[in-house]
Amino acid sequence: MRPDPAQPAAPPQALPEAGSVPAAAAADPDVALMLRLQAGDEAAFQDLFRKFSPRVLQFARRFVGSDAQAEELAQDVFVQVFRFRHRYRPQSRFSTWLFTIATNLCLNEVRRPERHLRVDIWERRDGEERAEGPPLPDPSAVTPEQGAAARQLERRLEVLVAELPPKQRAALLLSRMDGLAYRDVAEALGSTEGAVKALLFRATQTLKRALREYL
Amino acid sequence: MRCRRAQRWMVAAVDGELAPRRRRMLEDHVGSCPVCRRDLAGTGEVLERVAGLATQCEVPSRLEQATLRRVQLLAAAEEERSAARGWWAGLRAPALALATAAVAIVAVALTRGAGDRQPITSRALDQHRVAAQAPAREKPRMIASSERRAPKAAENLPVEPPPELAAAPDLFIELPILRNMEKLEHFEAIGTTTLDDGGEQSNG
Amino acid sequence: MKRLGIVVLLACALGGAARAQQPPGRPWQELSPEEQRRAWENYQRYQQLPEHKQRSLGERYQRFQALPPQERQRLRQNYETYRGFDPGQRQEFGQKYRRWKSGQR
């Protein structure tokens, strides 16, 4: 079902088991933080933010291709986490729940018609103001030429990823996240593992074809 | 095993998500197919490089501050709503009793009035006359009803807008236009700019 | 201090508009609920911008308010036109903008 761009993404709600939190979930520190947040502990929210915002922000940056827009989205993600905190069930991994929210918001964003009028993307492409994220080091570079080639490849890859169809892009970026297995990616996308594999296959084929000269 | 199937399994194999039996099949095939061997290596390299993109990044402090601020506003709004619901819930029981009593009074009045229609009718006419006059008074009440609507529509809005917002609300309504003013001012000229390789530019 | 500075800037913008005999912005209470919601959402986005961009927007608002009404309406119509573009048209417009911009330098 195509998300309505006008509506904020409503986080998923897993069916709760009657009774207590499963032992494995109770031992998960992220689950513990969410349970504390549900109980009204504001500091728990801050801890969750500090732990996950670097990944959420980077995911959003790679998804929408704009630093300022990614910041807005990252903010929206965590506001949704707070707003819908009582819907979270510890049977589901927190990172999966979090990235479900992030994916929905990013997909909604790229499908908004007025998105491309935002000055951030235009400024970024114009080079008027290019808010760079932290440069990714190339530890294998021995010479400046190698470093320059690696940066060129990285930029090319950024553009290619940004040009993938949204669901392929989402599947690719999510599956590179630490700790997210295909079943988690499927849950975040509201899809099946088989569909995730198909999305990844198509995305990778596109990238391999386009990067042939670099590989 | 055919190359086409092998290629479809490569991503899952690199990610460790391929079932053991299929993994063995793929390994056997790749062992004897140099093309797929190269393809698998290419798949691994691409995925590794993408993983290099999808790592963490530094989060500016303004993002944390802005997020916390929004969450605090949200929490305050939730508290207000729950306090308002609590007030109504507290009032509900006596209100219900009052409504029940009112119904009882009307029922008694109707029963008594059954033997004396005239006063009731004239009272009813008076009520209709009042109702007929109501439209003339509707206009002022329309403003009141829109004011009553405003809080409902604005239930996620702060009770009092922040000073910057209150100082120039039209600025924020026009914000998308302001942010793209140059493009919108020269919209026609940009639209007629040509993109041919000659680099010639129509300034419209 | 940053917030106070922006308020002062906006007050100056409004004062400048008044001196130029431009219609002042409407008070908050005169906005419809939908306008209030839109202003509030945009205000939250504005809050996330760096200070220099916020300042720039205040200056642009002053310039926008100084435009004749029909010119302001033209810009709004252009914005609505762009919103009606399909993805291909938006992409093309972006390319044309970059080409146009490079010709302006």
Tell me what the structure shows.
- The complex is a heterotrimer of chains A (215), B (204) and C (105).
- Chain A is mainly α and 215 residues long.
- Helices cover 63% and strands 0% of the residues of chain A.
- Chain A has helices spanning 23-27, 29-38, 42-64, 67-83, 94-110, 119-126, 144-163, 166-175, 182-189, 193-210.
- Chain B is an all-alpha fold and 204 residues long.
- Chain B folds into four domains: 3-53, Arc Repressor Mutant, subunit A (Orthogonal Bundle), CATH 1.10.10; 60-115; 118-158, no CATH class; 160-195, no CATH class.
- In chain B, 78% of the residues lie in helices and 0% in strands.
- The relative contact order of chain B is 0.03.
- Chain C has a domain at 1-68.
- At the B-C interface, helix 4, helix 5, helix 6, helix 7 and helix 8 of B face helix 1, helix 2, helix 3, helix 4 and helix 5 of C.
Brief summary:
The complex is a heterotrimer of chains A (215), B (204) and C (105). Chain B is mainly alpha-helical and 204 residues long.
CATH topology of the largest domain in chain A: Rna Polymerase Sigma Factor, Chain: A
The Rg value of chain C, from CA coordinates, equals 17 Å
Average of per-residue pLDDT values of chain C: 75
Q: How many structural units, i.e. domains of chain A? A: 2
Order of helices and strands of chain C: HHHHH
Number of strands of chain C: 0
The CATH fourth-level homologous superfamily of the largest domain in chain A: RNA polymerase sigma factor, region 2, helix turn helix motif
Using a beta-carbon cutoff below 8 angstroms, give the protein chain pair with the largest interface and the number of residues from each chain: B-C, 47 and 48 residues
Strand composition percent of chain A: under 5%
Shape of chain A: globular
Fold topology:
The complex is a heterotrimer of chains A (215), B (204) and C (105).
Chain A (H helix, E strand, L loop, with lengths): L22 H5 L1 H10 L3 H23 L2 H17 L10 H17 L8 H8 L17 H20 L2 H10 L6 H8 L3 H18 L5
Helix pairs in contact in A: 2-3, 3-4, 3-5, 4-5, 5-8, 5-9, 8-9, 8-10, 9-10
Chain B lengths: L2 H12 L5 H13 L1 H20 L7 H53 L3 H37 L9 H5 L1 H5 L1 H5 L1 H5 L1 H5 L13
Helix pairs in contact in B: 1-2, 1-3, 2-3
Chain C lengths: L1 H18 L13 H15 L3 H16 L2 H15 L3 H18 L1
List keywords for this structure.
heterotrimer, A: 215 residues, Rna Polymerase Sigma Factor, Chain: A, Arc Repressor Mutant, subunit A, 10 helices, 63% helix, 0% strand, globular, C: 105 residues, mainly alpha, 5 helices, 78% helix, disordered N terminus
